[in-house]
Amino acid sequence: MDAKTTQAGLNELIETLKDGQKGYAEAMTDVEDADLKDTFKKYAAQRASYITELEDQMFKLDLKPDESSSVTGTVHRAFINLKGLVTSKDRHSILAECERGEDYAKKAYETAQQIQDLPAELKAVIEKQAAGIKQGHDEMRALRDSSK
């Protein structure tokens, strides 16, 4: 395991998860439908638990989480805000933007799964989380498609 590569990959995942958590929290305020509020709340909580799991793994491996914020995530959150305002809380547009955020998360997990020689426990955590991210993506896409 290359510690620098692993640390950088895990920090990228954590930032992506933080962005997703904040994005879902923002999206909750942009919708009036109770079902979407509940869905967004569920995924915000999922992201928080994933962050904790990854930070625990980093602690076990004596790696340091990065405390800075990602520019991409900030731009994405701002776009969700703008979309909610411009489209008058349009369900389809908000779901489309959430799916776009899920695309970023899926890509980050695909990249993390390519890191060489990860410890088995960490690899299992990443694979489990990647499956949860894919499920979230697919749910956002299905909700978006059904909102046309």
Q: What is the alpha-carbon Rg in Å?
A: 16 Å
Name the beta content range.
Answer: under 5%
- Fraction of helical residues: over 70%
Order of helices and strands: HHHHH
Shape: elongated
Number of strands: 0
| End-to-end Cα distance | 47 Å
> Treating each run of at least 4 consecutive H or I residues as one helix, how many helices?
5
Uncertain residue segments: none
Mean pLDDT: 86
Main sheet characteristics: none
How does the helix and strand content classify structurally? mainly alpha
Describe, in short, the structure shown:
The chain has helices spanning 3-30, 34-60, 71-86, 91-112, 120-146. The protein is built from 5 helices and no strands.
Walk me through the structure.
By secondary structure, the chain is an all-alpha fold. The protein contains 5 helices and no strands. The protein has helices spanning 3-30, 34-60, 71-86, 91-112, 120-146. Helix 1 packs antiparallel against helix 2 (34-60), helix 3 (71-86) packs antiparallel against helix 4 (91-112) and helix 4 runs antiparallel to helix 5. It is elongated. The termini are far apart. The mean pLDDT is 86.
